[in-house]
Request: fold
Amino acid sequence: MPCYHLRDERGILIRQNEEYDRVEVSNDGVVLHLKTGKIIKSDMLLWANGRTGNSAGLGLETLGIEADHRGHIAVNDTYQTTLPHIYAVGDIIGFPNLASAAYDQGRCAGAHIATGQCDAHLVEDIPTGIYTTPEISCVGQTERELTAQNVPYEVGRSFFRHLARGQITDRKTGMLKLLFHRETLEILGIHCFGHNAAEILHIGQAIMAQPVPYNTVKYFINTTFNYPTMAEAYRIAALNGYNRL
Reply:
């Protein structure tokens, strides 16, 4: 759905599952050759090759601490490196490479340094946000992951254009998708794009983190939301998926 809106409303075409073969550079632009035989000519090319840890020049090799090919350092559950008196948190330790996670990692490491223990571990499912226009945010598993694991799941969707709040504020581009187990009704993943998607996601994240049986799709079905709000998307998505069972 985000791909559709980007193409339809902003003229941005996303080609998925493509691999580049070679790039030709000329005075008037670049030509990108894909392995599928497609050729894309453009004024410029942006190559996003992922993140690396800023570990070069720290002198880690003299300490006996090794970084991988992306400059990341391995740590244990309390963020200690191979040298117990040296800790590392944030992007330099790799996944999830999020400022929100780094804050909690630092708090845990600080507590362990001061008291020798850390009770404030990160939640199992860490939300991610892409602050584009519109925003994209998700937490938990994807349909592709659940399919690969042979998990029986169902999908519930709600579209912002159908929400009263979306119509009133003219924020009609967007969708909320709930993935839940067909038998236990446990929420397995939440995916949202649209205005304030990264904020809306936290509602579902809070319920998803609850113990069984309070982390099921029925919570959204039986809860009365303020009207009109964007949060109502959860109730509509829950009913949409539950009605398929």
